[in-house]
Design a protein that fits this description.
single chain; 384 residues; two-stranded antiparallel sheet; 15 helices; globular
């Protein structure tokens, strides 16, 4: 009996008794370093960066389509032409970077508060959140009407909604801090209103409706955003629609019998796109699963589901040299990083090999494209 108790105590010292790993302990120094840096920054807003080609106003997010380049046969380069998989480094990206930098800071501050209870982090996060989302002089409007514009072709496209994917970590950070006495009730109300309005725009706008119908990773990323924002805003009708999409659209229409995603495999960067798609599908299961409706165990009659998708890609995350297709045309060396799918699925299925690989991979990838395609920077905010 004493030997058995000793084993349990040893096990729980390094692992949570739920069968997972102590993310807070693993990431503690990393979290505090990022949060302490965030304490020293000025508020970040998109209004500080003028998008000269935007047809919107100073409060409207603007970006250019990644794979669109000036036409060398035209004196003015217009209209732009597409080069799939090759990002144009001269495109306007300041609003994207502002959004991501704000998210990085707020997520780090939220994570630091979660593991320390230090209200300094909350006070700073509130300052950043007010400036980006709520202050009339600097706030971002709750839409992406002008995202991924193509000069000479389109002022903004539904495909651009994916640019806001990094915002999914903001509600997670807020929920970690909202019970602090330093988190003002009016800020919480304002943020829930902002994200609720953004979710309404996603569903009602032409751009949003087009993106929701995408046949590849874009629709999964769309509904991951919608699920997080609607859940934060308390809109259960939208949350239910996200569950339906997962079960009735994504699994039957985007996943093959072996757990792969054929439309992602057909791209010029099949490895990176497969990882991106899997991360977002698995995160949907993490966000939407309840005791009454468990997406981790849900599968189609032929076995397609989150578990099958993980089983397909895991060997190639563990050993990239086994990947059966040609290397991606860009960012090949940067993948994989510490993918959220490994942590969430490892915890959900009690799969130690997923968790061990997650611990070994880089937590803060340096490749710009890899960083852009990983929406979760502070996993401690997402585990229960």
């Amino acid at each position: 009996m004493q030997k058995w108790m000793a084993v349990v105590i040893l096990f729980c010292a390094g692992w949570t008794c739920a069968g997972g790993i102590d993310v807070a302990q693993i990431d503690r120094q990393r979290i505090l370093k990022a949060a302490d840096a965030a304490l020293r920054i000025e508020p970040i807003t998109i209004t500080k960066f003028v998008a000269k080609l935007s047809e919107g106003g100073p409060h409207d997010f603007y970006s250019n389509g990644d794979y669109w380049w000036p036409d060398p046969s035209k004196p003015d380069g217009l209209p732009y032409i597409q080069r799939d998989g090759e990002s144009n480094p001269n495109n306007f990206s300041a609003h994207r970077m502002a959004l991501r930098d704000m998210r990085d800071a707020v997520a780090a501050l939220g994570a630091a508060y979660k593991i320390t209870g230090d209200d300094r982090y909350v006070t700073k996060a509130v300052e950043l959140l007010r400036a980006f989302f709520l202050d009339p002089a600097s706030r971002m409007n709750p839409n992406l009407q002008y995202a991924q514009a193509i000069p000479g072709r389109s002022p903004g496209r539904g495909i651009g909604i994916i640019d806001a994917l990094h915002l999914i970590e903001v509600p997670a950070a807020v929920e970690a801090m909202e019970k602090s006495p330093k988190f003002p009730p009016d800020v919480l109300v304002g943020l829930k209103k902002w994200f609720g309005e953004f979710a309404d725009w996603m569903v009602a706008s032409k751009n949003g409706q087009e993106e929701a119908k995408a046949k590849n990773n874009h629709s999964v990323a769309f509904f991951l955003q919608l699920a997080v924002y609607a859940k934060f805003a308390g809109d259960q009708k939208k949350v239910a629609e996200c569950r339906r999409q997962y079960k009735e659209v994504f699994l039957p229409e985007q996943m093959a019998a072996d757990g792969s995603f054929p439309r992602e495999l057909a791209r010029t960067k099949p490895y990176g796109y497969s990882i991106f798609q899997l991360d977002n599908l698995i995160t949907l299961a993490q966000v939407l699963s309840t005791s009454e409706d468990d997406l981790w165990t849900f599968s189609l009659p032929d076995g397609r589901g989150a578990k099958k998708a993980m089983e397909f890609l895991y060997p190639y995350l563990a050993d990239k040299s086994k990947w059966p297709k040609k290397p991606d045309v860009a960012a090949w060396d940067g993948w994989p990083a510490r993918q959220p799918c490994l942590l969430f699925a490892g915890l959900a299925y009690g799969e130690e090999k997923y968790l061990e690989l997650w611990k070994k991979l880089p937590a803060d990838p340096e490749d710009a494209e890899v960083k852009r395609n990983i929406a979760i920077t502070q996993p401690v905010l997402w585990v229960r």
